[in-house]
Design a protein that fits this description.
The chain is mostly helical. Helices cover about 80% and strands about 0% of the residues. The two termini are about 40 Å apart.
Length: about 450
């Protein structure tokens, strides 16, 4: 019965990982209420939005790595637990992808570290500096942790493309447990804003050790040292695809991460903290729900490579239904909890936005999960059909966020956010998805 609704082991461990992250977010809210004041809460959640500037460096390449690896791995088989065998052409191209990915992200990690430190100092020194919140050391530690995570994530992306989805899901699950335990200990120990950065460093180091001990790094080493007669032409094969993906990801920053920094700058850290706490829960629900879809990326790419569109559509439709159902259910539960908290636990409820802003954000989130799912489906064809819509919706969303936060209250901001993303963006995206699906899955008659 579990398999019928898409709950295979990889999905289960991914959901457990995200559930720990989501429950940890709730536990963090309780601890934030106790150990951080409202201004520090604003800094805590704005940190996350500024750190999301890594999108401007990654430029969607992580997902591309998984897809390209999966397309080549579809033509290979496992000789043993650590070594692939099969057509020399596809094996050589796989080696090319592995080398290129690791070299690029290693360089990118150092560049991003310097950029994040500088960007954070410029932003927090300019806005609300008079509050005298101790943010400098926490920001540096978080920046180091984020750069470290980038290097580990590219290994995860390669292994997921090779079909090691279940193993990576288990490792990410352990990572979330270690992270949550460390954050709890550090907050109780009085480390305040420094807690999350220290916890991220420790949890990321832990999964690095697990990758070595589990033998997964040996797989990467064998692929790295394999012969490379046929190469992936980065300029011809990757750049045209990545160019469009990059704009989609950068536009996504203005859609999903721009709210907090703008509110922090225009309405102060208290409102930014409430928005951050609310979005942390909503994004947690989204990430848990989309796990039914995101764990199928390598499988979708495999089906596309083999032109098995019947299985592709059947797997996608089942995953979409389950993802959307769990998202809607989770959002209803969250709104019910907030209603109870406002009445019986006002100190906790006051750390979130009020009813109407939360409602508009929830409605947008339902459309987001459908849009993300459509993106996973169409990008498995190594295409980016949402290039234009991402740019336009991203610009409109960023402009709306800035103007509404400056001239209206947070309710007006969330109404504008819903109209642009939940109505215009959603309808436009569905039209693109429908047209491209018909075009790309059409089997030519012989």
């Amino acid at each position: 019965m579990l398999k019928k609704i898409g709950l295979d082991s990889s999905v289960i461990f991914t959901i457990l990982s995200k559930a720990i992250q989501g429950l940890g977010g709730v536990a963090m809210l309780l601890m934030v209420t106790r150990f951080l004041d409202k201004n520090e809460q604003g800094y805590y959640y704005t940190f996350g939005s500024i750190l999301s500037l890594q999108i401007f460096f990654e430029l969607g390449l992580m997902g591309i790595v998984t897809q390209f690896v999966a397309h080549e791995a579809a033509h290979l088989s496992w000789k043993n637990k650590l070594e692939l065998t099969g057509d020399e052409y596809h094996l050589s191209r796989l080696t090319s992808i592995v080398r290129l990915s690791i070299q690029w992200f290693f360089l990118l990690g150092f560049i991003m570290l310097a950029a994040l430190i500088v960007a954070g100092y410029l932003f927090f020194n300019h806005y609300n500096a008079q509050l005298k919140v101790s943010w400098q050391s926490p920001w540096i530690v978080l920046s180091f942790a984020t750069a470290f995570i980038l290097l580990v994530d590219v290994i995860f992306a390669i292994l997921e493309g090779l079909g090691k989805i279940q193993q990576i899901a288990k490792i990410r699950f352990l990572q979330q447990i270690v992270n949550l335990c460390c954050v709890t200990v550090f907050l109780f120990g009085g480390f305040k804003l420094l807690s999350s950065g220290m916890a991220l460093l420790i949890s990321t180091f832990s999964v690095s050790v697990i990758l070595v001990l589990s033998g997964n790094i040996s797989i990467i080493k064998k692929l790295w040292s394999a012969s490379q007669n046929a190469k992936v032409d980065y300029k011809k094969e990757v750049i045209p695809y990545q160019f469009k993906i990059a704009f989609s990801y950068v536009s996504g920053y203005f859609i999903y991460q721009f709210l907090n920094p703008v509110l922090f700058a225009t309405q102060g850290p208290v409102i930014a903290g409430k928005m951050g706490a609310t979005m942390a829960v909503l994004n947690g629900i989204l990430v848990i729900s989309i796990s039914f879809m995101s764990t199928k990326v390598a499988l979708f790419s495999n089906y596309v490579a083999k032109k098995n569109y019947h299985l592709l559509n059947r797997t996608y439709n089942k995953s979409l239904f389950v993802s959307t159902f769990f998202c809607a259910f989770g959002l209803l539960i969250f709104m019910a909890i907030l209603a109870v908290a406002d009445t019986y636990y006002p100190k906790f409820g006051d750390r979130f936005l009020s009813f109407w802003p939360v409602l508009f954000l929830c409605l947008t989130q339902v459309t987001n999960i459908i849009g993300f799912s459509q993106g996973y489906y169409l990008r498995s064809f190594k295409q980016e059909p949402f290039f234009l819509i991402s740019i336009i919706i991203g610009l409109l969303s960023g402009l709306s966020t800035y103007l509404c936060s400056k001239y209206f209250n947070v309710t007006g901001l969330t109404i504008g956010y819903f109209i642009i993303n939940g109505v215009v963006g959603f309808i436009w995206g569905c039209i693109i998805y429908s047209n491209k699906k018909k075009e790309w899955t059409k089997i030519p008659k012989h």
